Amino acid sequence: MNHSTDTPRDLRSLNAEEAEDLLSGWGHKPYRAKQLLGWLYKRSAASIDAMSDLPQELREQLAAVFSLRPLELAREQCSLDGTVKFLWRLVDGELVESVLIPASIGRDGSQSDRRTLCVSSQVGCAYGCTFCASGLMGYKRNLDASEIVDQVLAVERWRLAKGVELPRREPLVNNIVMMGMGEPLANYDNLIRALEIFNSPWGLNIGARKITVSTSGLAPQIRRLAETPQQYHLAISLHGATDAVRRKIMPINRKYPLEELISACEAYQQAKGRMIWVEYILIDGVNTGSEQVEALSRLAKRLQCKVNLIPYNPVDGIELNRPSDGMVGRFRDALHHDGVRVTVRIEKGTDIDAACGQLRLKSEKIFTSAEALGQAG
Ligand code: SF4
């Protein structure tokens, strides 16, 4: 059974080893497992019945034990810059978001064919960061691995339904950031299974270097992730460069203060030999002072990381403000002057609710008022 609902386990959480064991246990030929995985992850079958080259007997055996329930598209918002925000309805009616960001310009200014999907890992979030729409709604539940994986597959189904053609018949999503709703490292086992499916040749075959896990700073799980063999990219949502400031806006800092977080990051870097990204949302009058520049500069040099500055995107119901462009520029220049590699995020989807959790919050209000009026579909 699926631990998050009372439904049978969804097939799209199966890995190659499990598929092989299962099918050989039922007496099927080894190549049937490969066929099944192909239907699940390459062809994104919408039902077990659609797997037309599997014997009827095998399809019945699968249907008796597993479910296969694609995410339902509840709402989509398309930005003028090509960013698309999806709101998915899960089997128990909960809603989560993914954001598709087509980058035509890379971080270094070169042309890029990177098409990133920002993927959610939980419904809501328990960590209560004061600036975040997902934190505002509180924690509801973990997504299981199939619900994480199907966000990418569902975008591919959406592309096919729209008739969007890509060169070399490649899939739409070729870069994944676990940066949507929820704290991915708080849903560790489901995350690791989903990453395995994203990364494996029998799965979505997306290189580990094109998969980023973003965390608010769960130090023990960063150390655990460091022990996995894959070279997943790590991004830290820092947002405060001293304990005093970070504690105010990110309660997680009380459990894992900066020193503990930074030393876990060092362990990750040592294990992987990979550069970490530090994300820093600039919130007017909260974390933009000169003492933050100095502390951030010290941390960035210690980690030899890149810093990505993100001017705060206001969220309904949260009384925090975006700093002026001048302030953002001065913050960036001060870091740059100190020798820190720093960029300001090129904003995408500013004409839609592009920050994580916003579309769900708004839709909840819309659905709730529709239900109150007896108009819900
Ligand atoms: S920023 Fe991340 S960890 Fe903090 S509340 Fe939002 S989703 Fe949770």
Outline the structure in words.
Helix content is 38%, strand content 16%. By secondary structure, it is α/β, with parallel strands linked by helices. The protein folds into 2 domains: 11-65, Orthogonal Bundle (DNA polymerase, domain 1), CATH 1.10.150.530; 72-371, TIM Barrel (Alpha-Beta Barrel), CATH 3.20.20. The chain has a 10-stranded mixed beta sheet, with helices on both faces. Strands 5-6 form a two-stranded antiparallel sheet. The longest helix has 18 residues, at 145-162. It is elongated. The site of iron/sulfur cluster has 11 residues, from α4.
Outline the secondary-structure elements.
Layout: H1 16-25, H2 31-42, H3 56-65, E1 72-78, E2 84-89, E3 95-102, E4 115-118, E5 122-124, H4 133-137, E6 139-142, H5 145-162, E7 175-178, H6 188-199, E8 211-215, H7 219-226, E9 233-237, H8 243-249, H9 252-255, H10 258-272, E10 277-282, H11 290-303, E11 306-311, H12 325-337, E12 341-344, H13 358-372
Parallel strand pairs: 4-7, 7-8, 8-9, 9-10, 10-11, 11-12
Antiparallel strand pairs: 1-2, 2-3, 3-4, 5-6
Helix pairs in contact: 1-2, 5-6, 7-10
Iron/sulfur cluster binds at residues 125, 127-129, 132, 134-135, 182-183, 216, 237.
